[in-house]
Amino acid sequence: MTGFRRGVRIGIDVGRARIGVARCDPDGMLAVPVETVKRDDASIARIEAIAAEHEPIEVVVGLPVNLQGADTASTTDSREFAAQLASRLTVPIRLVDERLSTVTAHAALRSSGRTQKNSRSIVDQVAAVVLLQQAIDTEKSTGNPPGATIPLDEESP
Question: Percent of the chain scored above 70 by pLDDT?
Answer without folding.
Answer: 87
